[in-house]
Design goal:
The protein contains 14 helices and 12 strands. With 411 residues, the chain is an alpha+beta fold.
């Protein structure tokens, strides 16, 4: 077993200009987005739908829905809508039962709707991260090109500025889809099917020219206007997370996790090295659905160009029970690599030692994601935050991640 070494004191800080530049950039982005949000609220007064985008589920009318479905089902006319329930998080989600006056073949009896959330703070976050626009763009440009299970979109629209968007999607519950959550056990068979899913997804766009041409809008290290914002948020989430959850965090994690933010730029460069592909970017089990022996992916709000191992590491270290991950980790990563190989990815691009180190490094990203979520009061219930932090901490220690971080920073 490798020795546990923290290579620098937690008081170490990034280069003097980085926090200032990140703070300035963050302030500018927040101010800009608040301006768009304020203008959006002002223009929304007295309107139920602008730019073809409803303000809320309650303002969706039969005439609007019929118009929105025309491209997918020409000639359709909607007579009535019944609200079947929903909830709001980073987006508003709802199911609608539709009564048709004119029903072309194939029109769905129920539709799943995603909309801008009503809460101002969540709208601001959605706009800053461009979550709605990114998912609309995925369904417009990419969905038809990925050979995996994912919902189909009947309509997708996003405002030019600000957070407003709408998506009309398949209602997967009518197809018998099974959903999971991070706080429920997942079987080893399901985990293996997820590895095969990632292999098919990543192989389909492995170093594809599309990533640099028609899909150039995809977020990447080179094109991520939010990187200063992400660095700023994650760096300032670390201490509150450690203070709030010190009772479940190992000493080494409490003492050394600050180094992740000290060396964040080096990590981002390491994570940006090729070969790269299309990745989901938020591959926890709550963004998946299960249909018999197949797995599908939901919520493409942070789809991006990157190393495929990001999806693999984030899923295994965040969504799988620690003991199951420890017992089957190598086997599962090898299953993923074998699927890539069977789909035509060259052996020269699947160096096992390099891939394993890149996989190990994803434990550092899992900590970033888990600590940011844990520091924000309303993103997840406390028990979910605790489970995620326990899994992230175990992954950091199991993979000697701070020693790896030191070598990445010195490279």
């Amino acid at each position: 077993m490798r020795s546990r070494v923290c290579f620098a004191p937690v008081t170490e800080r990034p280069a003097p200009t980085t926090p200032l530049l990140d703070a300035f950039s963050t302030t500018f982005r927040v101010t800009q987005e608040l301006g768009w949000l304020g203008l959006d609220r002002l223009l929304a007064f007295g309107f139920t739908s602008r730019d073809g985008i409803p303000e809320s589920v309650e303002t969706i009318r039969p005439d609007w829905l019929g118009s929105a479905l025309q491209d997918a089902f020409p000639g359709v006319r909607v007579a009535g809508i019944e609200y079947l329930g929903g909830h709001s998080g980073t987006t508003t989600r709802a199911r609608l039962r539709v009564d048709y006056a004119t029903a072309p073949p194939g029109v769905p009896e129920t539709i799943f709707v995603k909309l801008t959330p009503p809460d101002t703070g969540t709208r601001l976050f959605n706009g800053l991260m461009q979550l709605g626009r990114t998912e609309v763009d995925f369904y417009r440009d990419i969905r038809a090109c990925v050979p995996i299970l994912a919902p189909n979109a009947f309509c997708g629209r996003a405002a030019r500025h600000g957070p407003r968007f709408v998506l009309l999607l398949d209602d997967l519950t009518t197809a018998g889809a099974r959903f999971a959550t991070i706080d429920a056990p997942i079987s080893l068979d399901d985990v293996k099917n997820v590895m095969r899913l990632f292999g098919r997804l990543h192989a389909s766009q492995w170093e594809s020219p599309r990533l640099e041409t028609e899909w150039r809008w995809l977020r990447s290290f080179e094109r991520n206007r939010n990187l200063p914002l992400e660095r700023w948020i994650s760096a300032r989430s670390n201490a509150p997370c450690i203070e709030r959850y010190a009772d479940i965090l190992p000493k080494e994690v409490r003492e050394c996790s600050g180094l992740i933010h000290v060396h964040r730029n080096a990590l981002e460069r390491y994570w940006s090295a090729g070969p790269r592909t299309l990745i989901h970017g938020d591959s926890h089990v709550g963004n998946m659905f299960f249909c018999e022996d197949e797995v599908g992916l939901l919520d493409w709000q942070v789809v991006q160009r990157g190393q495929g191992i990001r999806d693999v590491g984030y899923f295994l270290m965040n969504s799988v029970d620690v003991e199951m991950r420890r017992g089957h980790e190598r086997e599962l990563v090898e299953l993923y690599v074998g699927t890539l190989r069977s789909r035509g990815v060259p052996d020269a691009e699947l160096d096992p030692d390099l891939l394993w180190d890149r996989y190990r490094s994803q434990s550092l990203y899992v900590w970033i994601a888990s600590s940011v979520t844990a520091s924000m009061a309303r993103l997840q219930p406390d028990e979910v935050k605790r489970r995620a932090l326990v899994r992230a901490s175990a992954a950091l220690l199991d993979h000697d991640a701070f020693a790896l971080l030191d070598s990445i920073a010195k490279a």
